[in-house]
């Protein structure tokens, strides 16, 4: 029995609320159970210097956790003068995931930065950030279309992400913190709306896992992402 009493293939309650920022071109508050992430997309009419004159744009992301997003206060990374390795790894993952479903040529020489701030953490913050980040990015593109800045949406597909793991010997979907902290195998899957894989992160915390177990986790993830994409479609409708 999972600590949350959920079935092995059951997501936590997921809520996606768009348009939560008055200033950002696109915004979304996403909740996976007790994990809450605020995603805001900001448009700049320029690209990084290394892309200047290339005729295409860029989508990037930044990620951070509020000091009391967890049970004990964490020191702000700005106070230490540098970002931690985990933060850098997660924000690069978010950026790669969003770029995978964006036609950067159609975006033009513009940059969209998606800021993902964790308000409350209970496992799965990176997967929630990717899922909500896509909605914020979509809203930014919609803002651009309303002002005739782009004729056709540069978004070519949905993208969402979910965690899976082997908890107490059973493959389960969407780990919360009690499961994540005790899982024998922990994995994150980033999958497009059409079912293609963007990224798979999987590691054994104890005994190595088999290929069959990995495929069972992938099956769970596909089902979970399919439901998340449905929720994205409802949010932007």
TrEMBL record:
Catalytic activity: tRNA(n+1) + phosphate = tRNA(n) + a ribonucleoside 5'-diphosphate
GO molecular function: 3'-5'-RNA exonuclease activity; tRNA binding; tRNA nucleotidyltransferase activity
GO biological process: rRNA 3'-end processing; rRNA catabolic process; tRNA processing
Domain Exoribonuclease phosphorolytic: 10-139, 159-222
Key words, A-Z: Nucleotidyltransferase, RNA-binding, rRNA processing, Transferase, tRNA processing, tRNA-binding
Subunit structure: Homohexameric ring arranged as a trimer of dimers.
UniProt-listed HAMAP family: RNase_PH (MF_00564)
Protein name in UniProt: Ribonuclease PH
Organism: Microbaculum marinisediminis
Organism ancestry: Bacteria, Pseudomonadati, Pseudomonadota, Alphaproteobacteria, Hyphomicrobiales
Gene that this sequence comes from: rph
């Amino acid at each position: 029995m999972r600590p949350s009493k959920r079935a092995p293939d059951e997501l936590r309650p997921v809520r996606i609320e768009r348009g939560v920022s008055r200033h950002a071109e696109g915004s979304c508050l996403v909740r996976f159970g007790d994990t809450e992430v605020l995603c805001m997309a900001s448009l700049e009419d320029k690209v990084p210097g290394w892309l200047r004159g290339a005729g295409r744009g860029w989508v990037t992301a930044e990620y951070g956790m509020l000091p009391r997003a967890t049970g004990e206060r964490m020191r702000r990374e700005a106070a230490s003068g540098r970002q931690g390795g985990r933060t850098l790894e997660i924000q690069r993952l978010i950026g790669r995931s969003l770029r995978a479903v964006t036609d950067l040529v159609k975006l033009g020489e513009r940059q969209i930065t998606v800021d993902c701030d964790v308000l409350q953490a209970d496992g799965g913050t990176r997967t929630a950030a990717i899922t909500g980040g896509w909605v914020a990015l979509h809203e930014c593109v919609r803002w651009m279309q309303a002002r005739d800045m782009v004729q056709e949406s540069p978004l070519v597909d949905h993208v969402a992400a979910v965690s899976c793991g082997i908890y107490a010997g059973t493959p389960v979907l969407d780990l919360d913190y009690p499961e994540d902290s005790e899982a024998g195998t922990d994995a994150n899957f980033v999958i497009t709306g059409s079912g293609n894989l963007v990224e798979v992160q999987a590691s054994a915390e104890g005994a190595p896992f088999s290929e069959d177990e990995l495929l069972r986790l992938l099956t769970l993830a596909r089902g979970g992402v399919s439901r998340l994409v449905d929720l994205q479609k409802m949010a932007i409708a």
